[in-house]
Amino acid sequence: MRQSGVIVRVPGKVNLQLSVGPKESDGFHEVVTVFQAIALYDDVTVRFAEKGERLALIAGTAIALEITGGTSNGVPIDTTNLAYRAAQTMIDSYDLEVSAENPLSITLKKEIPVAGGMAGGSADAAGVIVAMDALFELGLSRTEMERIASTLGSDVPFSISGGVAIGRGRGDQITPVLAQGEYHWVLALSNQGLSTPAVYNECDRLREGLTVTAPTANDQLLAALRAGDAKALGVALTNDLQSAACSLRPALRLVLDVGREYGALGNLVSGSGPTVAFLVDNEEKALDLAVALSASGVVGGVLRTSGPTHGARVIQTLH
Ligand code: ATP
Question: Does 71 or 18 have the greater pLDDT score?
C-alpha cells in the first residue's frame, strides 16, 4: 500500500567554531564553522489529507501547518515558516502534485529552542525535504537534497547531514569531519531569542576600523575531534559572534561565568545566540552544572544533551 505520510526526526546543532570573515558587498559574510548535531530533535510529519478530511490550509496555499511540542511558542504559522517554504520549494522543483484537491499536512513537533542559535527553523526545513523525498518517492541523493536545502538557509544542509561537519561559504557548503567520542553538553536557554541579522550587524559595528581576515578552520579543534579529546575540544571552542551576542544581551556574560566556576571544559554562545553551550566531562558534571545554572537565576531554562547525532531521517512511515 502507498504510504500516506512520513515522520522525520531532525536534530538541533551547536557550532563548535564559528569564524566570520569581513562583510561582503552583498551584505553577507563568509564563514567557516564546525557544526555538531545534538540530541535535541524536532519531529516533522508530512502527510496527505485523509479521505473526506478538511485541512485548515494556509490562505492561498494547498498546505496546512500545525505546530506542537515544548518550544512551539513564537513559531509563525504562515508562509514565512521555513517548513512551508521548504515544501513549496520541493513542489516547484519537482513539479509535485499538490493542490487544493490533494493538499499536504505538515506538523512540526518542536523541541529545539526557537531563535536560540540552534537551527530550529533550519531543522524543520530539512525535515520537510527528507519527508517529501520519501513521501513522493523521489529517490533524491543526499547531495541533491543538500543542494535544495542550501537555497533555503545556511544551516539547512547541515540539518540534513548531521554528525560533525565543517560549513564553508555561508555555512552551507558542508564537508564531514572525522570525529570520535560522545560529548556532553549543558545548554543555558534565554527566555527571549536574538535575531541572527541583528547579531551580525552588531559584529560589524564592533569590528569597525579593524582588519578582518578570511576565516579558516581551527586545526586544534579538528585534532581534538579526531582524537575524541573533550578537554582539548573545550579549550578550542570559538565563536566570532560571541562578543556581539554579549553586547546585545549583557546577561550572557554572567551565564558564561557560571559555567567557568563550575568547571565546564569549555563554553560558548551557540551560533548567533542567545543559547550558551557548556561542554562538560560526563553526565554527572552536566547535572551539577544544570542545577547551578538553574539556581543562578540568570537563565530562562536548562537542558542536558549530547552529540554528535544523526541528521534528518525518517523514523516512521504512515499508511
Ligand atoms: P540559526 O541557528 O539557524 O541562526 P535559530 O535557531 O537562531 O537559527 P530559529 O529557531 O530557526 O533560529 O528561528 C528564527 C526565527 O525564524 C524565529 O524567530 C521565527 O520567527 C522564524 N521561523 C520560521 N520558521 C520557523 C520554524 N519552523 N521554527 C522556528 N522558527 C521559525
Answer: 18
